[in-house]
Amino acid sequence: MYKSIILIVSLYKFVILDNYVELKEHLFKKLVFYKLKGTIILSKEGINGTISGNNINIYSIIAWLRIDARLININYNISFYNKHPFSKNQVKLKKEIVTLGVQNINPNKQYGNYVNPENWNDLIKKQNILLLDIRNIYEIALGSFKGAINLKIKKFSDFTKYVQNFKKKKIAIFCTGGIRCEKAYSYMLNIGFKKVYQLKGGIIEYLRLIPKLKSKWYGECFVFDSRIFIKY
């Protein structure tokens, strides 16, 4: 393990934040106070971000966020590195916390069918399950689950153009930390998919919990920071 451990936390929550504009200043001050680096996105549909810092300060910011009843069940994944993978801290306001560009979907209400990493291997080995990697093509180039379909999309919003072809199938979807799956799941239900499963916690949680010898993953997992990728 690293001599100087930096925790990297990817966090998100789909929840109505009517006061997200006002939250920006308070949240930024907390990032500065706790000496955290990275980016957090706020919008009316929720919160999403990846930040880094020492153990105490990372768990302190999570505890602070949970004081808000709307964020008490905020989702987060933790990984480790020997230095900050980010050069600065910032809080951004956006229309969506992850951009799909589709109206009338609500991951806050349309969610579920999560499969824990411990049960993922059993699910994806079933012959009637179609495994979809919903990440971008350059992410998949570094690694994926064996047998997963590469939609060859360049950005997440392209997902809607290609997924229609699989409407009659039983689908298992996965992404890096889970947030894209949440929105994809809601969209797929909206357009008529009947059976969709999603990997709870995403690839990051799978790599953390599943021993390499039992893993169905090959290669590395692309991440959006200076690490470029994580692996076993």
Automatic annotation (TrEMBL):
Matching Pfam families: Rhodanese, UPF0176_N
EC annotation from Swiss-Prot or TrEMBL: 1.14.-.-
Classification via PROSITE patterns: RHODANESE_3
Residue ranges of domain Rhodanese in the record: 125-215
Highest taxon listed in the record's lineage: Bacteria
Molecular function terms, GO-annotated: oxidoreductase activity, acting on paired donors, with incorporation or reduction of molecular oxygen
SMART domains membership: RHOD
Record's catalysed reaction(s): uridine(34) in tRNA + AH2 + O2 = 5-hydroxyuridine(34) in tRNA + A + H2O
Keywords: Oxidoreductase, tRNA processing
GO BP annotation list: tRNA modification
UniProt cross-references to InterPro entries, sorted A to Z: Rhodanese-like_dom, Rhodanese-like_dom_sf, TrhO, TRHO_N
SUPFAM superfamilies assigned: Rhodanese/Cell cycle control phosphatase (SSF52821)
Function: Catalyzes oxygen-dependent 5-hydroxyuridine (ho5U) modification at position 34 in tRNAs.
Family the entry assigns: Belongs to the TrhO family.
Protein name (record): tRNA uridine(34) hydroxylase
Organism listed in the record: Candidatus Johnevansia muelleri
Gene for this chain: yceA
